[in-house]
Design goal:
Elements: E1 12-14, E2 21-23, E3 27-31, H1 35-40, E4 51-55, E5 60-62, E6 66-67, E7 76-78, E8 80-86, H2 95-98, E9 102-109, E10 112-113, H3 114-123, H4 128-131, E11 137-139, E12 143-144, H5 145-148, E13 155-160, E14 163-169, H6 177-184, E15 195-197, E16 205-207, E17 212-217, E18 221-227
Parallel strand pairs: 3-15, 5-11, 6-18
Antiparallel strand pairs: 1-2, 3-4, 7-10, 7-16, 8-9, 8-15, 9-12, 13-14, 13-17, 17-18
Bound molecules: manganese (II) ion.
Length: about 230
Amino acid sequence: MSHVIPVWSVPSVAVIGETGSFPVRRIYCVGRNYAAHAREMGANPDKEDPFFFTKPADAIVPSGAILPFPMATKNLHHEIELVVALKSGGRNITSANALDHVYGYAIGLDMTRRDLQNAAKNAGRPWDMGKGFDQSAPITPIQPAAKIGHPAKGKIWVKVNGQTKQEGDLADMIWSVPDTIAYLSGLVALAAGDLIYTGTPEGVGPVVAGDRLDGHIDGVGALALTYAKA
Ligand code: MN
């Protein structure tokens, strides 16, 4: 089929041990999935069903990049997260079958223009411009589940300029990976190529031009990202 403008390439993520890459269809993100982080954002984690927002597929950027500081923000925040990559999907997936749809796992940053997000929250407006901006979804190469299994516990942390800012454990997720997939598949049809950023532990905070971020999840790997000096 021909097109009237040039077609862009499908965004994709490298896979450890494979020459082929993982093509990205959609990016879903879970809000407030660690109790301590929900509390630091002023929410009560005991009462909430999971909720979701999205980022454009082309918001991904590979670990190791040096990024320009994002436009239109004076309060950029880091959120370190376990990312789930789906090889198949469907509607109304059960928790018991959910992991059958997982291709693998990566470490991601749900970069957030907190000032724009807070202004949107206060005005009752959508979060999109706070969350779904250009290069807002850094991600490491994917570790296939066939190789590392399905991590359900283990340390997750991020350092800024060598100083630990967020530290948690995957076991502290309110909604586990299977429960998240099950719940989300009751809202939308999931499919191969979908990424799910599964939420962040407490300690979110600002990033400024010139900062270096180092992230880690036990058994998944390491992420590095630098924002260029102003
Ligand atoms: Mn997040």
